[in-house]
Write a structure and sequence with these properties.
Creatine Kinase, Chain A, domain 2, binds manganese (II) ion, five-stranded mixed beta sheet, Ubiquitin-like (UB roll), globular, 370 residues, ligase, eight-stranded mixed beta sheet, alpha+beta, binds adenosine-5'-diphosphate
C-alpha cells in the first residue's frame, strides 16, 4: 500500500491553485486491447452540451489503432461527466474513435450499437451490467494473497466481513464514491467468491448509455487503483484451478417485459437467444471458454440453457420475476472483459430485431480481421 508522504502535501499546494477560469477536459477513448486511454485538453469554459466539445485526435500508431503512415485517429466526444479527481468544473469526456477517411475506427463498436439502440428506442430497453474484476499487486500477484502460497479455499470471501475475509475495501469504496460523484448509475458493489475479486453493478441504464457508463466506471476504477498501486484485471479466468472466474452478467428488460404479463416477452427473448448462441458467444469476450466450464456458477460454453433462479444456466430468470410474472432476465454468459457495446448491441439485435445498416456480428468480424 502507498504511504502518505511529504510529496502528497507538496502536490496539494498546486492543486489548491485557481485555474483562471479554464477547464481541464480529460478525453477518454477505448484502445485496441480493450483498455481505456486518456489525454487532457484545456477548454476556455465548462461546456453545457456535448456539441460544445471539440473533436480531437491522437497518434493511433502508438496504440495499435492506426498504421504509422496514416496515424491520426480522431476522437469525437459523445458524453461528459464531472471529474472526481480534479473536481470543480473539470470534466471527463468519453469519445468515439474515427479514422481519417471518415469510417469508424476498427475498435469503435459504439457507432453501430448506437444505431440499433436508436432504431429500437420505442422499446425503452434497460440494461444492468455486473462488472466482476480481480485485483493484483505491482508484482502481478493476486492482491494480498500470501507470498508464495494460496489463501484458504473459497467460501468465506463472497460478501465477506472481517480481516482475512475481505481485501482492498478502501480501493472499492474510493471507486464507488468516484462513480457517484461523476453521476455514473452505479447500483451497488460486493466482494466476490474468490479473494480479492470484486463486483460493481451499473444500471439500469437505457440503450447506448449502458456502454458509456460501464466504460467510464472502468476508467474510474483504473484511475483509483493507480493511486493505490493496485492493478485491475478484467480477465475472465485470472487464476487457473479452483478459483471462480469473472463475468459481466447482463440484465435486460424491454418496456413490455416490465409490466404485468411481461413473462411471455421474457420467454420469447430467451427463445431467440437460444437460436443465436454461437453468434453471441463470439462477442461475449476473449478467453471466455476458460470460464464457462459448467463449474463455478457457470453454464457450459457449448450449449444454451435457461432456468428460473438457476445460476448454472446461460440465462437466469430471477425467482422474484417468475413469481410476479414480469421484470427482466439475466444473461450470465458475458465475460468480464466484454466490450459492452458489442454485448448490448447484439442483445438488441437478437431480441428486438436486426436493422439494415447495423450488424453487430459483422462488427466482431471487423475487429478480428484486424
Ligand atoms: P445478481 O443477483 O445476479 O448478483 P445484482 O444485484 O448484482 O444481481 O445485479 C442486478 C442488476 O440488474 C443491477 O445492475 C440492476 O441495475 C439490474 N436491473 C434491475 N432491474 C432491471 C431491469 N428491469 N432491467 C434491466 N436491468 C435491471
Ligand atoms: Mn451480482
Ligand atoms: Mn457476481
Ligand atoms: Mn448476476
Amino acid at each position: 500500500m502507498v504511504a502518505i508522504t511529504e510529496q502528497t502535501a507538496i502536490l496539494q499546494k498546486y492543486l489548491d491553485l485557481p485555474q483562471n477560469g479554464k477547464v481541464m477536459a480529460e478525453y477518454v477513448w477505448i484502445d485496441s486491447e480493450g483498455n481505456t486511454r486518456s489525454k487532457c485538453k484545456t477548454l476556455s469554459k465548462r461546456p453545457t452540451s456535448i456539441d460544445e466539445l471539440p473533436e480531437w485526435n491522437f497518434d493511433g500508431s502508438s496504440t495499435g489503432q492506426a498504421p504509422g503512415h496514416d496515424s491520426d485517429v480522431y476522437i469525437r466526444p459523445v458524453a461528459f461527466y464531472p471529474d472526481p479527481f480534479r473536481k470543480g468544473d473539470n470534466i471527463i469526456v468519453l469519445t468515439e474513435c474515427w479514422n481519417n477517411d471518415g469510417t469508424p475506427n476498427k475498435f469503435n463498436h459504439r457507432h453501430e450499437c448506437a444505431k440499433l439502440m436508436k432504431a429500437h428506442e420505442g422499446e425503452d430497453i434497460w440494461f444492468g451490467l455486473e462488472q466482476e474484476y480481480t485485483l493484483f499487486d505491482q508484482f502481478d500477484q493476486p492482491y494480498a494473497w500470501p507470498k508464495g502460497g494460496f489463501p484458504a479455499p473459497q467460501g468465506p470471501y463472497y460478501c465477506g466481513v472481517g480481516t482475512g475475509k475481505v481485501y482492498a475495501r478502501d480501493v472499492i469504496e474510493a471507486h464507488y464514491r468516484a462513480c457517484l460523484y461523476s453521476g455514473v448509475e452505479i447500483s451497488g458493489i460486493n466482494a466476490e467468491v474468490m479473494p480479492s475479486q470484486w463486483e460493481f453493478q451499473v444500471g439500469p441504464c437505457v440503450g447506448i448509455n449502458m456502454g458509456d457508463e460501464l466504460w467510464i466506471a472502468r476508467y474510474l476504477l483504473q484511475r483509483v487503483a493507480e493511486e493505490f498501486g493496485v492493478k485491475i484485471s478484467l480477465h475472465p479466468k485470472p487464476l487457473k484451478g479452483d478459483w471462480n472466474g469473472a463475468g459481466c452478467h447482463t440484465n435486460v428488460s424491454t418496456k413490455a417485459m416490465r409490466v404485468p404479463g411481461g413473462m411471455k416477452d421474457i420467454e420469447a427473448a430467451v427463445e431467440k437467444l437460444a437460436k443465436r448462441h454461437k453468434e453471441h458467444m463470439l462477442l461475449y469476450g476473449a478467453d471466455n471458454e476458460q470460464r464457462l466450464t459448467g463449474r463455478h456458477e457457470t453454464a457450459s460454453i457449448e450449449a444454451f440453457s435457461s432456468g428460473v433462479a438457476n445460476r448454472g444456466a446461460s440465462v437466469r430468470i430471477p425467482r422474484s420475476v417468475a413469481k410476479e410474472g414480469y421484470g427482466y432476465f439475466e444473461d450470465r454468459r458475458p465475460a468480464s472483459n466484454i466490450d459492452p457495446y458489442l454485448v448490448t448491441g447484439i442483445m438488441v439485435e437478437t431480441i428486438c430485431g436486426a436493422i439494415p445498416d447495423a450488424d453487430m456480428f459483422k462488427e466482431y468480424a471487423r475487429e478480428s480481421s484486424a
